[in-house]
Write a structure and sequence with these properties.
This protein is 58% helix and 10% strand. The radius of gyration is 23 Å and the shape is globular. About 10% of the residues have low confidence.
Length: 220
Amino acid sequence: MKLARRAWLIVVCITASSLFITHLAHANEPFVGQYELLTPPQPTNNPDKVEVLEFFWYGCPHCYHLEKNLRPWLKTKPDYVEFKRIPAVFSKTGGWTVTAKAYYTAEALDILEEIHTPFFEAIHKKRRRALKKQEQAIAGFFADYGVTEKQFSRTYHSFWVDTQIGKALDMTQNYGISGVPVIFVNGKYRVTSEKADGYDNMKKVLNYLIEKEYKLMNVH
């Protein structure tokens, strides 16, 4: 009986110690519960960089607000961070695909940085709702940046743009996207403004996870 009681006490002590260690680990973690682990983790393109991916939709007002908050951050992000936007695509057709093709068309024409923010503003600030779903309206927007209707149509319907849409569709599925905006760090961590309690704190969580991954990269 004494042996059984001693064994029970040992189990209790071990359990208590484990709980205490877990508590200490969480106590040293400044953003517990403000991000999520991605299961399974996704591969990244460059092992020498911390990859940060933003999934978005031009028609999403929350994505528009995040874009305004990300702009200053992008100017100060470390050189070891590789940031990339991915327009979320759930099918080969539909409004999300229309604007995703606009994104890749701009990239192919080498005017993406020039039109990315204005395209957001045209939809959400200037209320040009047709840009969310009509190819003709998008062609008119591109015309303001010196792209002829022929150039636009040829690029918008090109094999390269269709290939990028296929890749975006695969990534949307692989990353388990159900809503936007959402940011992933190094294929491991999911960060949203809701989980992080606002855009300002979201950037703090983002910076923390980036530094965490960068330190791990330099250990190996």
